[in-house]
Each structure stands twice: as structure tokens, then as C-alpha cells.
Write a structure and sequence with these properties.
It is built from 5 helices and no strands. By secondary structure, the chain is an all-alpha fold.
């Protein structure tokens, strides 16, 4: 697990439509997301995701960049909400 994987994941979600569509289909809350990440060699912990998000957020020069980044966070929350879990609790 690594922050680098979390950064790569965030960037891939932003740029790759087919990856994002596959992510929409993930079931099983946090466990399903973990499986999705492991299958793609992108495992990371919630703390690593938070660190990656904060790092990328500080690099945003325009509001549109920050909006896209927050959209990724909202997508992750949607994916893991399958079991009414909060991303911050894991």
C-alpha cells in the first residue's frame, strides 16, 4: 500500500472513463473497493488516500482542478456507501 498508489488511483479516476465506469460497478462497500484496488495493483489505506488527496489538493491552481478532485472523493464515498460506511472511519 502506498500514497503513490492513491495518487495514481485519483488521477486515473479523473482521466480514464473506462476505469471510472468500472469503479461505479463496485459492490460491497470498503471490501469491494479493496478488491477492485488489489486487482489493479493500486492498494492503499484510507489514511494514504487522505494524504494523497491533501497533497493533490494543495497543488490545485484553479477552482476547476479542486472541483474535479472533490468529485473523485465523492465518487469514493458513493462506492463505499454500499454498507453505510464512512471512508473516514476505515
Amino acid at each position: 500500500m502506498s500514497i503513490g498508489n492513491a495518487i495514481e488511483f485519483i488521477k486515473t479516476v479523473e482521466l480514464d472513463d473506462s476505469f471510472r465506469k468500472a469503479l461505479y460497478k463496485v459492490k460491497g462497500g470498503w471490501d469491494g473497493l479493496n478488491l477492485f484496488l488489489k486487482q489493479r495493483d493500486l492498494s492503499y489505506s484510507p489514511l494514504e488516500f487522505e494524504d494523497a488527496f491533501n497533497h493533490l489538493h494543495t497543488q490545485c491552481q484553479f477552482e476547476e482542478q479542486a472541483d474535479r478532485l472533490h468529485n473523485v472523493l465523492n465518487l469514493i464515498k458513493l462506492v463505499i456507501s454500499d454498507k453505510n460506511q464512512s471512508y473516514e472511519k476505515h
